[in-house]
Design brief:
Blueprint (H helix, E strand, L loop, with lengths): L1 H7 L9 H25 L2 H12 L3 H31 L8 H40 L7 H45 L1
Helix pairs in contact: 2-4, 2-6, 3-4, 4-5, 5-6
């Protein structure tokens, strides 16, 4: 009897008005546009970095280490680019008619934020290693002892991590954060 009642019961998600759907669609379209721009603008960085490295650095050992790090960074970027592209494809602006779809989209936005943060964290040690190699190469004769070298590297690392984090935070807020906040406020109003 319970099984029959379950089948007969109509379950429906509340409908979202066209006005609210359109309010959500606009920031979603901007997010999609920004993802597309970011993915395509990242690709020329790697050949450019390799070209600069080969033109500027004469020590072939340093070129080998730095090229290897650039290659690893490229693989990390490709891995996350596929994940981010999957998110891009999952942003479906046509399926905003029910509250369930809105909640699914909100979950996807949280997932994307975490994915984007892990992308940055994965690139951070590679970028810092690249910086250290270039820094040591350019100043190898300026340090008299290990303590002065270590102190300079530690201070550079702290400043470098701080600047990279600030850059990531501003980049994320500019391209995605403000649109996600707008969508969250619309969702709050719907609830």
């Amino acid at each position: 009897n319970l099984k029959n009642n379950w089948k007969e019961e109509e379950v429906f998600a509340p409908e979202i008005s066209l006005e609210k759907q359109n309010e959500i669609r606009n920031p979603l379209e901007k997010i999609k546009k920004n993802i597309k721009f970011e993915l395509w603008s990242t690709l020329p960085i790697f050949p450019l970095a390799l070209w600069i490295l080969y033109k500027m650095v004469e020590d072939k050992t340093i070129v080998l280490f730095a090229s290897t790090l650039i290659g690893v960074m490229f693989l990390v970027v490709i891995f996350y680019a596929f994940k981010i592209y999957k998110f891009y494809k999952e942003i479906n602006t046509n399926s905003l008619s029910s509250f369930q779809h809105i909640l699914e989209m909100e979950y996807q936005m949280k997932y994307y934020r975490d994915l984007y943060q892990s992308y940055f964290i994965a690139l951070l040690p590679i970028m810092m290693s690249e910086f250290f190699i270039i820094f040591l190469y350019s100043r190898k004769n300026e340090f008299e002892n290990f303590e002065s070298l270590a102190g300079t590297l530690i201070i550079s690392m702290i400043i470098g991590f701080g600047l990279l984090f600030l850059f990531w935070f501003l980049w994320y807020q500019f391209f995605y954060g403000r649109h996600f906040k707008k969508i969250k406020s619309i969702i709050k109003n719907i609830k």
